Amino acid sequence: MRRSLPPVASKVSDTLIARGHHGVIITQPSPTHTAQEAAEALGVTVGAITKSLVFLLDDDPVLLLVSGSHQVHLDRTGERLEGTLSRAPAAMVREVTGQPIGGVAPLGHPTNLPTFIDNALAAHRELWAAGGHPNTVFRTTFGELVRITAGLAIDVD
């Protein structure tokens, strides 16, 4: 079963295992392009979908793990992070994560990105996040997500 994963998803699985997660990545029949589509495919609420979004905080890339039911308000979230927050260009997202947009996982990147996790995710018993490829996902919990990413929980709106 592991051999059927795309190489980038295998790297995410290896990283998950190295950080104490079971490392199981599920391959869906087709990519889901929105958090709503992912939620429908998995039979969960959209708030339980973890979006992995790369932004620039001033000039440095950071990763925000955001509930599927939230949009990032750049000014308010930037203020909480004590800087200016802007969307990272697609080429930079690919460079700093090594993963395609639409499949960016919370970890398994070539560099350790500072990671901030939306507190709204804590309201869900289980969370689903991309597995490094647009049609892969893995299950986790809020506490485990904070631990495996060494992320800082913040309010995102």
Explained architecture:
This protein is α/β, with parallel strands linked by helices and 157 residues long. It is built from 5 helices and 8 strands; from the N terminus they run H-E-H-E-E-H-E-H-E-E-E-H-E. Strands 1, 2, 3, 4, 5, 6, 7 and 8 form an 8-stranded mixed β-sheet that branches.
Query: What Rg, in angstroms, do the CA atoms define?
Result: 14 Å
Low-pLDDT runs of 5+ residues are: none
Quickly count the helices: 5
Helix content: 25-40%
Bulk shape: globular
How do you describe this structure in short?
The chain is an alpha/beta fold.
Which tags fit this structure?
157 residues; 5 helices
Topology:
Blueprint: H1 7-18, E1 26-27, H2 35-42, E2 49-57, E3 60-67, H3 74-80, E4 85-87, H4 90-97, E5 115-118, E6 127-130, E7 136-140, H5 142-149, E8 152-154
Parallel strand pairs: 2-6, 3-5, 5-8
Antiparallel strand pairs: 1-7, 2-3, 2-4, 6-7
